[in-house]
Write a structure and sequence with these properties.
The chain has helices spanning 14-21, 24-30, 117-148, and strands at residues 3-10, 37-41, 52-59, 62-74, 78-85, 90-100, 103-113. The protein is α+β, with helices and mostly antiparallel strands. It has a seven-stranded antiparallel beta sheet, with helices on one face. Helix 1 packs across helix 3 (117-148) and helix 2 crosses helix 3. The longest helix has 32 residues, at 117-148. The radius of gyration is 15 Å and the shape is globular. The termini are far apart.
Length: 149
């Protein structure tokens, strides 16, 4: 199963970074290029433990719908969102935060598995892992910019 680990240093307090990372409105702003919308569940503001959101977006020219739930949350250091329904066989995203000197280190550990057995594995290797990395980098850039402004 592909795993993406991405560390982002942010010049802002840990609690502020944590809250921005679970802010649905900021997430939607960062994903404008894929016309992402929150269409059910928690559709605005800060998502919390046990809450879910259903996203609709266009990727690769196709419309996708995915519901994720916050399965664990320990303010301000850790939360996990997991896919309940959607296009992946599995999606598990850990968000970790720690203070490093005067900065907050935000670490994403993103694990996913494409459906369709061997065809999914090929897609993961050929383009999907890189595509998902770019989406996470775009989201983290928006969080960093907002936190540091």
């Amino acid at each position: 199963m592909p795993t993406i680990i991405l560390k982002t240093l942010i010049n802002a307090p840990i609690g502020h970074c944590f809250d921005l990372s679970r802010n649905i409105d900021l997430h939607l702003q960062s994903m404008k290029s894929s016309n992402e919308k929150a269409i059910a569940g928690k559709i605005s503001g800060l998502i919390g433990l046990g809450e879910s959101v259903t996203w609709r977006a266009i990727h690769f020219g196709m419309l996708f719908k995915m519901t994720t739930r916050i399965s664990k949350l320990e303010y301000p250091t850790f939360f996990i969102d997991e896919m309940i329904t959607g296009p992946f066989k599995k999606l598990h995203h850990q968000h970790r935060f720690k203070i490093t000197g005067l900065q907050t280190e935000m670490t994403d550990i993103f694990e996913f598995q494409a459906p369709f057995w061997i065809f999914g594995q090929l897609a993961e290797k050929i383009f999907l892992k890189n595509y998902m990395l770019k989406l996470i980098e775009k989201r983290n850039k928006a969080i960093k910019c907002q936190a540091e402004s």
